Structure formats: structure tokens, C-alpha cells
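Revision sheet: C-alpha cells.
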Amino acid sequence: MAGVGSPMRLSLVSKVLQDRSPEAVIDVAAASGYDGVEWFCLPQHLPPETPLGRASDLAARTRDAGLRTPCLSTYAGGFADLPDAACERQLDDVRRYVDLAAVFDCPLLRVWPDAMGRTLREPVADGVLERVAGYLRRAADAAAGAGQQVAVEMHLTIGADAALVGRLLALIDRPTAGVIYDPANLYLARRPYRLSADPHLAALAGRVFHVQLKDGDLTRRTPPRLAAEPTLRFGGDFDLLLGEGRVDLRGALDDLRRAGYGGWYSVETHAAPRPDLDSAAIAAGEIGTLRALLD
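Predicted:
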């Protein structure tokens, strides 16, 4: 199976510490026992205009902490929703991230086929999928020139339909294009989320380049502050620690391992800080939970 890194390598998604500086993200990840940091390319962490000198400083701090960078989870893309001129600007962002990834010695970039399901709705027309594939092929070629891969996160809208993702990858027609598997996203989209539960999802097993893990619960009411969150279009909540929701994470991980997955697992917990649990404590606790799920 495709993957980056060694088996049982655990990384911390920087968004878990979105209230802290990039330097603090690195320090907390190292102190908590993670093997790497997956940068969510938020404005406060790693926007596309990040100067290469700034990136070099962060990359050096990462290496000095004994950490690696398995993925830059960019927000570039949205090709299904944007006009051509805007899509070209998004490809410019992809090229900037290719340069930043090289600084971090990072092998993988997340690129979005649509705008996280904010406007695109099912069914997705063939022409839309073909247009998206054309832009993603160009993104994959730009990354491959630097020895990198690109991946579509399994998320609303296109990414939540495993059959559609399979068609998209066939249209892209590049071995360096794959998927980021996130079982909670699929669960919250009311889709099958275990490889053993859906033949279309099982067929993607060999194209899983990276795994992100959070929890969700469709029986909970969506908090008002999350009402506009595209991941929760079908209801539910994800303000949860790993194990607090209804996603069968252990089963999903067992399916992955049976399929031969050998890449990274990233903690992407969406739990907000609590009165007795700040973001650093959340990061430190979640790695123990993930290790227990993987044991």
C-alpha cells in the first residue's frame, strides 16, 4: 500500500493547537511524544505566502526536535467551484507549497477538488469531475517534479463519495495522486467509513497516502458555533476527544492494517479547549488514546 513514513508513526495536526504559535506546536508535539507535525496551512501557521526563510527556521526547529513533517494540509484547490482564472491562482498556491514542502522535506500535499462541500452538491456532473481532474493532474505533476505526492482528503463533497473518488483518480491518471483517509469525515457525511463496509472504499486502500483521525457523533445536536461548519452539513458534532464519539476508530484502523497500510496516523482532534484541558493537554492526551487504539 502507498504511504509515507514508517509503520506506527504518529503526527500531530497543527490545527489542534490553532491557538498557539508554530514554534509552540513543534515544542508541544515533541514533548508529547509525537513523531511528526502535520501542518494545517492556516493563516497563523503556514499560509502560502510564508517566506522561505521563515519556513527554513521552522523546518530546522522541527528537525532539532526530532520530528518529521509527513504532510502539508493546504487549503489550495476548490477547482469544482471556481472560475478558470481563480483555479490558476490556486495552482500558483500549490506551486508555492511545493517549494515550502521541499524546505520541510515533506513528501505530501493536500489539495482540494472542491471547496470542502460548501457549494458543490450531489450529483456531481461528469464534466465537473473531468475539469477537476485536469487541474489536479497539473497539481500532481508540479509536486512530482519535486519528488512529492498530492492527496484529496475524504471530505464533502467529492471526497466523501468513494466511487466518485475512484473515478477522479482514474481521470487524474497519476500514481502520485491519492487520498487522505478520514473515517470521521465519512461518518459525518453519512457514508460508509470502514474499508470492510464498502467495496468502493476498499478499492481505494492502495491509494491511501495518509490518515487523519478525529471523532464525531451524529446523535448530538450541532453546537450553534459550528452551524456553518461544512463538515457538519448533515448534523452532529465533532467537538470531541478520540473515543468520545460514535466512530468505530479501532475497527477503521484494523481494516487499514489488514489492507497493509504503512503510513502515518495524524491526530486531528476537533475538541476545543475545555476549562480543565487546554490545547496542549489535549494534544498530550490524544497520543495516548491513539496508541491504545492502534495496539
